[in-house]
Write a structure and sequence with these properties.
By secondary structure, the protein is of the alpha/beta class. The protein has one domain: Rossmann fold (3-Layer(aba) Sandwich). Helix content is 34%, strand content 22%. 1-O-pyrophosphono-5-O-phosphono-alpha-D-ribofuranose (PRP) binds at residues 135-136, 160, 165, 167, 189-195, 224, 246, 248, 250-251.
Length: 258
Amino acid sequence: MCTGSPSSNGSQPEETNATTEQQPQPEQEATEQPLRTPTHAIVGAAKAEEILAEYGSNLKLLECNSQVSELLTIIRDKNTTRSDFKFYADRLIRLVIEESLNQLPYTDCDVETPTGAIYEGLKYRSGNCGVSIIRSGEAMEQGLRDCCRSIRIGKILVESDANTHEARVVYARFPDDIGSRQVLLMYPIMSTGNTVLQAVNVLREHGVPEKCIILSNLFCTPVAARTVVNAFPQLKILTSELHPVAPNHFGQKYFGTD
Ligand SMILES: O=P(O)(O)OC[C@H]1O[C@H](OP(=O)(O)OP(=O)(O)O)[C@H](O)[C@@H]1O
Protein backbone atom coordinates (compact mmCIF):
# COMPACT_ATOMS: atom_id res chain seq x y z
CA MET A 1 0.00 0.00 0.00
CA CYS A 2 2.76 2.46 0.90
CA THR A 3 4.53 4.21 -1.93
CA GLY A 4 7.36 5.52 0.26
CA SER A 5 9.34 4.05 3.12
CA PRO A 6 9.37 1.72 4.95
CA SER A 7 9.09 -1.60 3.04
CA SER A 8 5.52 -2.97 3.05
CA ASN A 9 6.21 -6.45 1.62
CA GLY A 10 7.41 -8.15 4.77
CA SER A 11 11.06 -8.18 3.63
CA GLN A 12 13.91 -6.68 5.62
CA PRO A 13 12.91 -3.08 6.48
CA GLU A 14 14.91 -0.40 4.73
CA GLU A 15 16.27 2.51 6.76
CA THR A 16 15.40 5.65 4.89
CA ASN A 17 16.05 9.31 5.41
CA ALA A 18 13.27 11.77 4.70
CA THR A 19 15.70 14.14 3.00
CA THR A 20 17.03 11.44 0.66
CA GLU A 21 15.49 11.34 -2.79
CA GLN A 22 13.30 8.25 -3.28
CA GLN A 23 14.11 6.00 -6.22
CA PRO A 24 11.24 5.73 -8.73
CA GLN A 25 9.47 2.35 -8.68
CA PRO A 26 8.71 0.45 -11.91
CA GLU A 27 5.23 1.52 -13.05
CA GLN A 28 3.96 -2.05 -13.54
CA GLU A 29 4.51 -2.91 -9.88
CA ALA A 30 2.74 0.23 -8.68
CA THR A 31 -0.42 -0.14 -10.77
CA GLU A 32 -1.12 -3.89 -10.79
CA GLN A 33 -1.52 -4.30 -7.02
CA PRO A 34 -5.06 -3.43 -5.88
CA LEU A 35 -5.01 -1.10 -2.87
CA ARG A 36 -6.34 -2.59 0.33
CA THR A 37 -8.88 -0.53 2.25
CA PRO A 38 -7.15 0.64 5.43
CA THR A 39 -8.87 0.06 8.76
CA HIS A 40 -9.27 3.74 9.44
CA ALA A 41 -10.90 4.17 6.03
CA ILE A 42 -13.58 1.68 7.02
CA VAL A 43 -14.10 3.54 10.26
CA GLY A 44 -13.91 6.91 8.51
CA ALA A 45 -16.10 6.25 5.49
CA ALA A 46 -18.29 3.13 5.52
CA LYS A 47 -19.26 3.55 9.15
CA ALA A 48 -19.73 7.33 9.01
CA GLU A 49 -23.37 7.04 10.03
CA GLU A 50 -22.50 4.83 13.01
CA ILE A 51 -19.88 7.33 14.12
CA LEU A 52 -22.43 10.13 13.91
CA ALA A 53 -24.90 8.09 15.98
CA GLU A 54 -22.26 6.99 18.51
CA TYR A 55 -20.28 10.22 19.00
CA GLY A 56 -22.44 13.00 17.54
CA SER A 57 -21.55 15.55 14.88
CA ASN A 58 -18.76 17.25 16.88
CA LEU A 59 -16.32 14.36 16.29
CA LYS A 60 -14.83 14.75 12.84
CA LEU A 61 -12.33 12.54 11.03
CA LEU A 62 -9.78 13.93 8.60
CA GLU A 63 -10.86 12.98 5.09
CA CYS A 64 -9.54 9.50 4.39
CA ASN A 65 -7.29 9.18 1.35
CA SER A 66 -4.23 7.13 0.40
CA GLN A 67 -1.83 9.87 1.47
CA VAL A 68 -3.27 10.03 4.99
CA SER A 69 -3.25 6.21 5.21
CA GLU A 70 0.41 6.10 4.23
CA LEU A 71 1.31 8.68 6.89
CA LEU A 72 -0.58 6.71 9.57
CA THR A 73 1.12 3.49 8.45
CA ILE A 74 4.62 4.98 8.61
CA ILE A 75 4.00 6.51 12.03
CA ARG A 76 2.71 3.18 13.41
CA ASP A 77 5.50 1.05 11.90
CA LYS A 78 8.00 0.05 14.62
CA ASN A 79 10.75 -0.05 11.97
CA THR A 80 10.35 3.61 11.01
CA THR A 81 13.50 5.57 11.83
CA ARG A 82 13.19 8.53 14.20
CA SER A 83 14.11 10.93 11.43
CA ASP A 84 11.35 9.57 9.19
CA PHE A 85 8.92 9.42 12.11
CA LYS A 86 9.29 13.13 12.84
CA PHE A 87 9.17 14.08 9.16
CA TYR A 88 5.96 12.15 8.45
CA ALA A 89 4.35 13.04 11.79
CA ASP A 90 4.92 16.71 10.92
CA ARG A 91 3.20 16.16 7.57
CA LEU A 92 0.16 14.58 9.25
CA ILE A 93 0.13 17.31 11.90
CA ARG A 94 0.04 19.96 9.15
CA LEU A 95 -2.99 18.29 7.54
CA VAL A 96 -4.82 18.06 10.88
CA ILE A 97 -4.00 21.67 11.77
CA GLU A 98 -5.19 22.91 8.37
CA GLU A 99 -8.50 21.07 8.79
CA SER A 100 -8.81 22.27 12.40
CA LEU A 101 -8.50 25.86 11.17
CA ASN A 102 -11.32 25.05 8.78
CA GLN A 103 -13.54 24.35 11.85
CA LEU A 104 -13.11 27.91 13.18
CA PRO A 105 -15.90 30.43 12.64
CA TYR A 106 -15.48 32.68 9.59
CA THR A 107 -17.25 35.82 8.48
CA ASP A 108 -17.87 37.46 5.08
CA CYS A 109 -15.12 39.76 3.84
CA ASP A 110 -15.18 41.72 0.56
CA VAL A 111 -11.86 42.85 -0.92
CA GLU A 112 -11.03 44.95 -3.98
CA THR A 113 -8.83 43.20 -6.57
CA PRO A 114 -6.16 45.02 -8.67
CA THR A 115 -8.68 45.33 -11.51
CA GLY A 116 -11.11 47.16 -9.22
CA ALA A 117 -13.52 44.23 -9.02
CA ILE A 118 -14.95 43.25 -5.63
CA TYR A 119 -14.12 39.72 -4.49
CA GLU A 120 -16.59 38.27 -2.01
CA GLY A 121 -14.38 36.29 0.39
CA LEU A 122 -14.08 35.15 4.01
CA LYS A 123 -11.98 35.91 7.08
CA TYR A 124 -11.67 34.51 10.59
CA ARG A 125 -14.50 35.86 12.76
CA SER A 126 -12.64 36.57 15.99
CA GLY A 127 -9.37 36.12 17.88
CA ASN A 128 -7.93 32.63 18.01
CA CYS A 129 -5.18 31.05 20.04
CA GLY A 130 -3.48 27.69 20.40
CA VAL A 131 -3.00 25.69 23.60
CA SER A 132 -0.68 22.71 23.62
CA ILE A 133 -0.72 19.94 26.19
CA ILE A 134 2.87 19.24 27.25
CA ARG A 135 4.62 17.38 25.92
CA SER A 136 3.29 15.63 22.82
CA GLY A 137 1.02 18.56 22.07
CA GLU A 138 4.10 20.75 21.62
CA ALA A 139 4.92 18.70 18.51
CA MET A 140 1.88 20.34 16.91
CA GLU A 141 2.89 23.94 17.66
CA GLN A 142 5.09 24.41 14.59
CA GLY A 143 2.32 23.21 12.29
CA LEU A 144 0.02 25.86 13.78
CA ARG A 145 2.69 28.59 13.58
CA ASP A 146 3.34 27.69 9.93
CA CYS A 147 -0.31 28.56 9.23
CA CYS A 148 -0.82 31.43 11.71
CA ARG A 149 2.49 33.28 12.03
CA SER A 150 2.14 35.15 15.31
CA ILE A 151 -0.60 33.17 17.02
CA ARG A 152 -0.46 33.08 20.83
CA ILE A 153 0.09 29.60 22.28
CA GLY A 154 -0.72 28.67 25.87
CA LYS A 155 0.50 25.52 27.65
CA ILE A 156 -0.95 22.93 30.00
CA LEU A 157 1.02 20.20 31.73
CA VAL A 158 -1.04 17.22 32.86
CA GLU A 159 0.59 14.42 34.83
CA SER A 160 -0.86 10.92 34.57
CA ASP A 161 -0.36 8.11 37.03
CA ALA A 162 1.25 5.23 35.09
CA ASN A 163 -0.88 2.61 36.86
CA THR A 164 -4.25 4.24 37.52
CA HIS A 165 -4.17 6.65 34.50
CA GLU A 166 -5.53 9.29 36.85
CA ALA A 167 -4.54 12.71 35.52
CA ARG A 168 -3.95 16.06 37.29
CA VAL A 169 -2.96 19.50 36.02
CA VAL A 170 0.38 20.72 37.37
CA TYR A 171 0.97 23.81 35.16
CA ALA A 172 -1.14 26.11 32.98
CA ARG A 173 -0.33 29.44 31.27
CA PHE A 174 -2.70 31.19 28.86
CA PRO A 175 -3.17 34.59 27.18
CA ASP A 176 -5.07 36.91 29.63
CA ASP A 177 -8.09 37.18 27.35
CA ILE A 178 -8.33 33.48 26.51
CA GLY A 179 -11.99 33.48 27.60
CA SER A 180 -12.89 35.57 24.55
CA ARG A 181 -10.87 33.53 22.03
CA GLN A 182 -11.45 30.44 19.94
CA VAL A 183 -9.01 27.83 21.29
CA LEU A 184 -7.22 25.19 19.23
CA LEU A 185 -6.26 22.60 21.86
CA MET A 186 -3.43 20.41 20.56
CA TYR A 187 -2.70 16.86 21.70
CA PRO A 188 -1.85 14.01 19.30
CA ILE A 189 -2.76 10.90 21.33
CA MET A 190 -5.95 10.09 23.19
CA SER A 191 -5.75 6.71 24.88
CA THR A 192 -8.14 6.91 27.85
CA GLY A 193 -8.95 10.57 27.18
CA ASN A 194 -8.10 11.52 30.79
CA THR A 195 -5.34 13.98 29.84
CA VAL A 196 -7.65 15.88 27.50
CA LEU A 197 -10.49 15.86 30.07
CA GLN A 198 -8.25 17.62 32.61
CA ALA A 199 -6.99 20.11 30.03
CA VAL A 200 -10.52 21.06 28.96
CA ASN A 201 -11.52 21.47 32.60
CA VAL A 202 -8.69 23.99 33.11
CA LEU A 203 -9.71 25.93 29.99
CA ARG A 204 -13.28 26.11 31.26
CA GLU A 205 -12.05 27.33 34.65
CA HIS A 206 -10.34 30.16 32.72
CA GLY A 207 -13.64 31.17 31.13
CA VAL A 208 -13.38 29.37 27.76
CA PRO A 209 -16.82 28.05 26.74
CA GLU A 210 -16.78 24.40 25.67
CA LYS A 211 -18.14 25.30 22.23
CA CYS A 212 -15.14 27.60 21.61
CA ILE A 213 -12.62 24.74 21.89
CA ILE A 214 -11.46 22.66 18.92
CA LEU A 215 -9.35 19.66 19.87
CA SER A 216 -6.72 18.83 17.22
CA ASN A 217 -5.71 15.18 17.55
CA LEU A 218 -3.96 12.54 15.45
CA PHE A 219 -4.85 9.21 17.11
CA CYS A 220 -7.97 8.60 19.20
CA THR A 221 -9.31 5.37 20.68
CA PRO A 222 -13.09 4.77 20.67
CA VAL A 223 -12.96 4.68 24.50
CA ALA A 224 -11.34 8.13 24.65
CA ALA A 225 -13.72 9.55 22.06
CA ARG A 226 -16.73 8.33 24.06
CA THR A 227 -15.31 9.66 27.34
CA VAL A 228 -14.53 13.13 25.97
CA VAL A 229 -17.73 13.49 23.91
CA ASN A 230 -19.86 12.44 26.90
CA ALA A 231 -18.08 14.88 29.22
CA PHE A 232 -18.04 17.79 26.75
CA PRO A 233 -20.74 17.37 24.11
CA GLN A 234 -20.16 20.87 22.68
CA LEU A 235 -16.40 20.47 22.22
CA LYS A 236 -15.32 19.93 18.60
CA ILE A 237 -12.81 17.12 17.99
CA LEU A 238 -10.82 16.65 14.82
CA THR A 239 -8.76 13.48 14.55
CA SER A 240 -7.06 11.58 11.77
CA GLU A 241 -7.77 8.09 13.13
CA LEU A 242 -10.26 6.36 15.40
CA HIS A 243 -8.60 3.05 16.29
CA PRO A 244 -8.60 0.88 19.45
CA VAL A 245 -4.79 0.84 19.66
CA ALA A 246 -3.18 4.20 20.49
CA PRO A 247 0.47 4.66 19.41
CA ASN A 248 1.59 5.66 22.89
CA HIS A 249 5.23 5.76 21.76
CA PHE A 250 4.51 9.02 19.89
CA GLY A 251 6.09 11.44 22.39
CA GLN A 252 9.16 9.31 23.02
CA LYS A 253 9.86 8.77 19.33
CA TYR A 254 9.07 12.31 18.18
CA PHE A 255 11.30 13.93 20.79
CA GLY A 256 13.87 11.11 20.95
CA THR A 257 13.61 10.42 24.68
CA ASP A 258 12.75 7.38 26.78
O1 LIG B 1 -5.59 9.77 26.85
P1 LIG B 1 -4.61 9.43 27.95
O2 LIG B 1 -4.83 8.06 28.52
O3 LIG B 1 -4.59 10.49 28.99
O4 LIG B 1 -3.16 9.33 27.28
C1 LIG B 1 -2.65 10.30 26.41
C2 LIG B 1 -1.19 10.13 26.19
O5 LIG B 1 -0.51 10.42 27.40
C3 LIG B 1 0.40 9.39 27.68
O6 LIG B 1 1.63 9.69 27.13
P2 LIG B 1 2.76 10.48 27.96
O7 LIG B 1 2.41 10.53 29.41
O8 LIG B 1 4.07 9.93 27.55
O9 LIG B 1 2.58 11.98 27.43
P3 LIG B 1 3.49 12.80 26.42
O10 LIG B 1 3.73 11.92 25.21
O11 LIG B 1 2.63 13.99 26.08
O12 LIG B 1 4.73 13.16 27.14
C4 LIG B 1 -0.20 8.17 27.01
O13 LIG B 1 0.82 7.23 26.74
C5 LIG B 1 -0.83 8.73 25.79
O14 LIG B 1 0.09 8.76 24.71
